[in-house]
Backbone:
């Protein structure tokens, strides 16, 4: 979205949004007011500015570049991220995901451009044309947002805040905060609220995670708990914790549902500069930048699915904190139950992972692709062809022959995964859903999802399931979540009250020509996927 002024298409719609102060649009664009030189989030409680004084920008970085500073009242930098960077798959959206992951800070604009397959000059032109700011300005705005979060949410020193946010010097940090927020860091910190009463342990960061509600925390924490690898991850009905490998070293984090209903993050890092990257990956893991009202509204238009949406509003699709790990976990989980996959992944981590004490207690990092490539066959158990395929994939990830990231082109990622032995359509599409956050993935070979569709009275044979679900585009990934949650095997980790509500709205099963689905081979929600594309089965 280029700057939108009064006579431009879309202006009237956005102006109505700021008149209504609709929180749903916070993070999706900012409102710049020429008379005050301030930009705000759409829901800012201040008096609505006159139309002739308003310009809309897609990002705060574009407003910064145009000479505006952030509103001190609504703090637009504290809004949830824009959902369009996950919904869209074009180069601009892919660039935004990588910038949020810290690629520009670590590799510069040339590194970002290389990952996207463009020259630095052309990429800068593309971003400036659509967003009004180039990659350096966008990365600078992201650093400013992280710094503001730390200043108002922690007791870190200004120096620690500066380097945690990715600034290379205190002077750069001070100047940027002054330009963006119109006040020095100490004044911004003085404006924070102490009402939460949160006290972090020494060396620990504790922050609130902005969320665009509603959000299905029962499903998110249930999913994480059901798939948690012993020794690597821990979860219960209100929290999830794990250790993860970041560019600066290992880190531990815990996301929990606080008593006030907000999601909070606790983290301990080896390198403070990794904090922005960690926050970005956690937001992707929990799908926190989704627009649940838009998704629920679209899915609920179909009477067959409306009861499921009403029973579980704000459903999210879990993402991934590490793309390489996600692929290897998906391959290990092919054709076996979730419990069996967790056992194998736990054994693999115990044997080949690195034990670290970065968190409150020692935990194990999931093994690197190099470790699995070297010794995976000694630890993994199962069909020889499948074990070799896993080790070969790990070797390709280790030597760079295969590269995966949140900035991949969806079609290209799927094609290169399908070209490898042992990776079929289910695995490639499941990785696309989890790593890229693609909102429109359907897995017709997923046993649990088709069982959930049958429980909702929908066709459950692969052809009928696929044909019926086409009407749900572009939100089929979120429909998959509803299918999974409707399956009998997931009810063990949904709350009793919610299970009863879902049962009350479940429609009678219609007669179909589907083959019988055997759920005894599936523990929770992760379905089976065969070892090779040409032999992948639908059940």
Residues:
């Amino acid at each position: 979205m280029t700057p939108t002024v009064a006579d431009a298409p879309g202006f009237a719609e956005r102006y109505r949004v700021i008149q209504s102060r609709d929180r749903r649009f916070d993070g999706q664009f900012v409102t710049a007011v020429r008379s005050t030189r301030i930009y705000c989030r759409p829901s800012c409680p201040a008096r609505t500015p006159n139309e002739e004084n308003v310009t809309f920008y897609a990002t705060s970085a574009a407003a910064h570049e145009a000479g505006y500073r952030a509103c001190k009242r609504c703090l637009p930098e504290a809004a949830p991220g824009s959902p369009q960077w996950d919904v869209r798959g074009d180069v601009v959206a892919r660039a935004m995901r990588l910038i949020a992951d810290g690629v520009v800070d670590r590799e510069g604009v040339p590194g970002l451009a290389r990952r996207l397959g463009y020259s630095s000059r052309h990429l800068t032109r593309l971003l400036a044309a659509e967003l009004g700011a180039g990659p350096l300005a966008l990365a600078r705005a992201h650093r400013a947002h992280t710094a503001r979060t730390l200043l108002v949410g922690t007791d870190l020193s200004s120096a620690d805040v500066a380097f945690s946010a990715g600034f290379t010097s205190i002077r750069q940090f001070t100047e940027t905060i002054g330009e963006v927020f119109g006040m020095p860091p100490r004044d911004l910190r003085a404006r924070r609220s102490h009402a939460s009463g949160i006290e972090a342990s020494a060396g620990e960061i504790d922050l609130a995670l902005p969320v665009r509600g509603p959000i299905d925390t029962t499903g998110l924490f249930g999913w994480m708990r059901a798939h948690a690898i012993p020794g690597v991850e821990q979860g219960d009905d209100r929290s999830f914790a794990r250790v993860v490998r970041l560019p600066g070293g290992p880190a531990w984090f815990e996301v929990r549902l606080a008593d006030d209903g907000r999601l909070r993050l606790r983290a301990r890092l080896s390198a403070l500069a990794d904090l922005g990257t960690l926050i970005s990956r956690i937001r992707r893991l929990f799908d926190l930048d989704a627009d649940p009202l838009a998704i629920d509204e679209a899915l609920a238009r179909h009477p067959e699915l409306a009861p499921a949406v009403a029973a579980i509003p704000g459903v999210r699709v879990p993402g991934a904190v590490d793309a390489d790990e996600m692929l290897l976990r998906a391959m290990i989980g092919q054709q076996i139950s979730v419990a069996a996959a967790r056992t194998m992944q736990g054994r693999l981590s115990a044997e080949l992972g690195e034990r670290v004490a970065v968190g409150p207690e020692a935990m194990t990092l999931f093994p690197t692709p190099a470790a699995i490539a070297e010794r995976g066959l000694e630890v993994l158990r199962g069909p020889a062809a499948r074990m070799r395929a896993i080790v070969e994939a790990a070797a390709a990830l280790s030597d760079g022959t295969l590269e995966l990231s949140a900035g991949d082109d969806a079609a290209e990622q799927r094609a290169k995964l399908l070209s490898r032995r042992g990776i079929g359509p289910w695995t490639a599409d499941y990785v696309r859903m989890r790593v890229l956050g693609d909102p429109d993935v359907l897995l017709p070979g997923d046993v649990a999802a088709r069982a959930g569709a049958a429980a909702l009275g929908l066709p459950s044979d692969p052809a009928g399931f696929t044909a019926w679900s086409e009407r749900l585009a572009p939100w089929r990934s979120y429909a998959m979540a509803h299918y999974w949650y409707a399956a009998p095997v997931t009810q063990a980790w949904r709350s009793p009250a919610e299970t009863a509500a879902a049962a009350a709205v479940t429609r009678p099963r219609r007669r179909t020509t589907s083959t019988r689905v055997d759920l005894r081979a599936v523990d929770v929600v992760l379905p089976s996927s065969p070892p090779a594309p040409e032999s992948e089965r639908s059940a």
